[in-house]
Amino acid sequence: MIPVTKPFLPAETEFDNYVKSIWERQWLTNNGPLVNTLELKLKEYLGVNHLLFVSNGTVALQLAIRALNLSGEIITTPFSFVATTSSIVWQGCTPVFTDIDPETFNIDPAKIEAAITPKTSAILATHVFGNPCDITAIQKIADKYGLKVIYDAAHCFGTFYNNRSVFEYGDISTTSFHSTKLFHTIEGGAVFTQDPELLRKMALMRNFGYSGVDSFSEAGINAKNCEFHAAMGLCNLRHADEILKKRKYLSEQYMLRLSNLDVKFQKLENKQDYNYAYFPVLFNTEDLMNESKAKLELAQIYCRRYFYPSLSSLPYVNKVEMPVCDSIASRIVCLPLYHTLTLPDLDLICRLLLRVQNFDDKGQHKKNHFGSAIADKIELEINEKNGTI
User: Fold this and answer.
1) pLDDT in single tens digits along all 389 residues of the chain
2) DSSP string of 368-381?
3) Other C-beta atoms within 10 Å of 69: how many?
4) Can you say whether the dihedral through the CA atoms of 51, 52, 55, 57 is positive or negative?
5) Phi then psi for 257, rounded to 5 degrees?
6) Which end of the chain has fewer CB atoms at under 10 Å, N or C?
7) What kind and span of H or E run contains 288?
8) Could you give the maximum distance between any two Cα atoms of the chain, in Å?
9) How far apart are the first and last CA of the chain?
C-alpha cells in the first residue's frame, strides 16, 4: 500500500534521549526548556526574528485574527484547507471569497480590490501547497486600504520569497507542524510577526492571558504546546535539509516521468525557493481525474483530492460561485509524496497514470495520445511487476 503521505520519523534513540530528559526534569508543559530550545533553533534555521510555538495551525490562525482585533469581513481564498475559512467564522468574522489564479492556485490579487467594502478589515491568503502568493501585490492593496494581512503558510516550512523566509511577510503569518507536514512536531504550529508588541500580545494570549502569577492582561486561551511535541520537533529539525532535498528530488522525478501526461502542474514563481511540500496534478476533466484516482486505488495507491470541495460551498458560509476555483477543485489531486517514497513506487504511480491516458477500459490504445509502442511498454512493465491490473 502506498499512502498519500507518511510522517518523517527520526531514529527512536534520538527521540528517546529527549524523553529521558523530560522524565528527569518532570517538566511536561507550560513553556518548558525544550519548547524554548525549539523556538530558538527554529528562528535560527528559518532566519526569522520572532515566532511562538503553539498547539496547532488552526489555533495559530485564531490567535492571529484575535490579536489583530479583526471584525467584519475578511477577504480570503476559496482554495485552501477548511481551517482557513473555519477560523474566520469561529472568530465571528465573515469570509469574503475572491477567486484564484488558474496557474499558481493562489488568491488572485487582481480580484481582491473589487471585494473590498467599508466592512473589510483584513486579507487572509494561503500560500497554496507552499507556493508563495504574490505578496508584493497583496501588500500594496492592503496599504492602499489600511487592511491587515494574515498569511496561512501551513505548507511553507523552508519556502522563501525575495530571499527571505515566507513567514516574515504579512502582519502575522501562521504555519502548521502537523505530522502530515514535511517538518512536524506530531501536533503543532507557529505564529510569526515582525512586530514585537504583537508577539508579546500573542504570547500572553496563548497562555490564558497570564501576565503574572495572579494577573491577566489579555483574554487568552490554552494554545501552548508540550515538551514531547517539542522533542519531536528538535529531532526532525536536524533532518530538515535532508527532507527538503529528498522531496525536491522526488518531485523532479515525477515531473520527468509525467512530462508527457496530458495534465497541468502548479506554476511555481521561483523553484529555487520552493519546498516541494506537495505534488498536485490538475487533470483536464473531473471524469479523467476520477478514472485515474480509481486506477491508483485498485493498486492500493492513494492520492487525495486536495483541496476539495471549494470552501465557498461550505454550509456555514454565504455560498458564491468561484468559477476558477470550482473548476480546479473538481479536477486536482495530490500524488503520494513523502521522505521514504521509493523510486520503484513512484515509477508504478506514473505508469498507472499514463496507462489511464493511453488505454480504454477494454485495454485498447486510445487515439491522439502516445504511439502504441510506448503504450505496450507501459503495459508490459506493469504486468511484469504486478500482474494484470
Assistant:
1) 999 999 999 999 999 999 999 999 999 999 999 999 999 999 999 999 999 999 999 999 999 999 999 999 999 999 999 999 999 999 999 999 999 999 999 999 999 999 999 999 999 999 999 999 999 999 999 999 999 999 999 999 999 999 999 999 999 999 999 999 999 999 999 999 999 999 999 999 999 999 888 889 889 999 999 999 999 999 999 999 999 999 999 999 999 999 999 999 999 978 889 999 999 999 999 999 999 999 999 999 999 999 999 999 999 999 999 999 999 999 999 999 999 999 999 999 999 999 998 766 655 666 544 333 444 444 444 455 444 43
2) TSS-HHHHHHHHHH
3) 9
4) negative
5) -75, -25
6) N
7) helix 286-298
8) 77
9) 14
Q: Give pTM, 2 decimals.
A: 0.92
List Cβ neighbours of 62 (8 Å cut-off, separation of 6 or more).
Answer: 87, 90, 91, 221
Name, in order, each residue with C-beta under 8 angstroms of 7's C-beta and a sequence gap of 6 or more: 179, 180, 184, 186, 338
Count, residues in the chain: 389
Round to whole Å and give the CA distance between 155 and 178: 10
* Full set of structural domains in the chain with CATH: 12-237 (3.40.640.10), 240-386 (3.90.1150.10)
Report the alpha-carbon distance of residue 65 to residue 90 in Å, rounded. 10
Per the structure block, which three cell numbers stand in for 307? 483541496
- Evaluate whether 335 touches 305 at the Cβ level (below 8 Å): no
